[in-house]
């Protein structure tokens, strides 16, 4: 198993904020993960899975956790049964890799998720979604390891999940999933292209960001609430809510964790006092 020490965590977050990790582990199989889970228990240290880093931000300074990168868990297997495709993907497989398969075979079901900058493990753990779809719509099975190191193979119906939430945010390591997609009569590549154009129009993809900051409250939109509260473009030094989309934080160059947290707390207090709605963070914050 590859191990790196004294690593800049800003390189493991798409918003490019964070201090240093004392150590990061790069497991290559189930046994490696089981070893790291036991290590986290023996040393009484939190185990933190890290994927592409599109919804995670780390505090400044030195962080001494069991950081587990999924970058070496990249196995991908495709099985076809008539017009149905079963894609088995390990946690580190990126959505871009899935999109390549989807385009090649013109498969339906993944197109709405195609522009999300995510890996399979992280997306499953948070039930990532876009354009009215979420990854649990197409999941069939999840192979995961619990906090005691036991391996489970669960149908999605056996997993506790809801909007942008799963049990894996509290316990367990997503190791591998099976996604089920079907051949389509539509031009899937064209639909994906349209979604990507729409995403580029609405989201600040020209700057370091971590995607949607807050979950949409029931019956409303977090971005709309933030905009009405005056937070579109609101900035503290180099961290800001985007001018393009008020629910996206952006880094204008040298943003730091303290300013980010101050901006979040300011926004949350204002929205709650103005609309009596408590915003729930979608991003993971590691302090």
From TrEMBL:
Pathway in which the depicted protein is active: Cell wall biogenesis; peptidoglycan biosynthesis
Pfam families: FAD_binding_4, MurB_C
Keywords recorded for this protein, A-Z: Cell cycle, Cell division, Cell shape, Cell wall biogenesis/degradation, Cytoplasm, FAD, Flavoprotein, NADP, Oxidoreductase, Peptidoglycan synthesis
Annotated catalysed reactions: UDP-N-acetyl-alpha-D-muramate + NADP(+) = UDP-N-acetyl-3-O-(1-carboxyvinyl)-alpha-D-glucosamine + NADPH + H(+)
FAD-binding PCMH-type domain: residues covered: 17-184
Keyword Disulfide bond in annotation: no
Cofactor(s) required for function per UniProt: FAD
Any single GO BP term: cell division
InterPro entries referenced in this protein's UniProt entry, alphabetically: FAD-bd_PCMH, FAD-bd_PCMH-like_sf, FAD-bd_PCMH_sub1, FAD-bd_PCMH_sub2, MurB, MurB_C, MurB_C_sf, Oxid_FAD_bind_N
Enzyme class: oxidoreductase
GO molecular function annotations of the record: FAD binding; UDP-N-acetylmuramate dehydrogenase activity
One GO CC term on file: cytosol
Keyword Mitochondrion carried by entry: no
Positions annotated as active site in the UniProt record: 164, 212 (proton donor), 282
Major location category of this protein: cytoplasm
Classification via Gene3D superfamilies: 3.30.465.10, UDP-N-acetylenolpyruvoylglucosamine reductase, C-terminal domain, Uridine Diphospho-n-acetylenolpyruvylglucosamine Reductase, domain 2
Record EC number: 1.3.1.98
Record NCBIfam families: murB, PRK13905.1
Protein name: UDP-N-acetylenolpyruvoylglucosamine reductase
Organism encoding this protein: Hydrogenothermus marinus
């Amino acid at each position: 198993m590859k191990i790196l020490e004294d690593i800049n965590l800003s390189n493991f977050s798409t918003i490019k904020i964070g201090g240093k990790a004392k150590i990061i582990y790069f497991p290559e199989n189930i046994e490696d993960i089981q070893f790291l889970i036991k290590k986290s228990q023996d040393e009484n240290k939190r185990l933190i899975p890290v994927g592409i880093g599109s919804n995670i931000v780390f505090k400044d300074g030195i962080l001494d956790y069991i950081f587990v990168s999924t970058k070496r868990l990249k196995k991908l297997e495709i099985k076809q049964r008539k017009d149905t495709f079963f894609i088995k993907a390990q946690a580190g497989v990126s959505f871009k890799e899935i999109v390549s398969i989807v385009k090649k075979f013109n498969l339906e079901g993944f197109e709405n998720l195609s522009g999300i900058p995510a890996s399979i493990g992280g997306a499953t753990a948070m039930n990532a979604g876009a354009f009215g779809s979420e990854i649990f719509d197409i999941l069939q099975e999840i192979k995961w390891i619990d906090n005691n190191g036991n391996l489970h193979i669960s149908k999605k119906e056996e997993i506790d999940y809801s909007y942008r939430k799963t049990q894996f945010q509290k316990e367990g390591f997503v190791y591998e999933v099976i996604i089920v997609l079907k051949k389509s009569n539509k031009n899937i590549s064209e639909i994906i292209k349209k979604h990507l154009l729409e995403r580029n129009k609405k989201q600040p993809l020209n700057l370091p960001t971590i995607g949607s900051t807050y979950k949409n409250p029931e019956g409303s939109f977090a971005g709309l609430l933030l905009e009405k509260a005056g937070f579109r473009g609101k900035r503290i030094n180099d961290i800001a809510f985007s001018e393009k989309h008020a629910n996206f934080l952006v880094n204008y160059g040298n943003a730091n964790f303290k300013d980010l947290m101050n901006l979040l707390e300011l926004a949350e207090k204002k929205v709650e006092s103005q609309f009596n709605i408590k915003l729930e963070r979608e991003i993971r914050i590691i302090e």
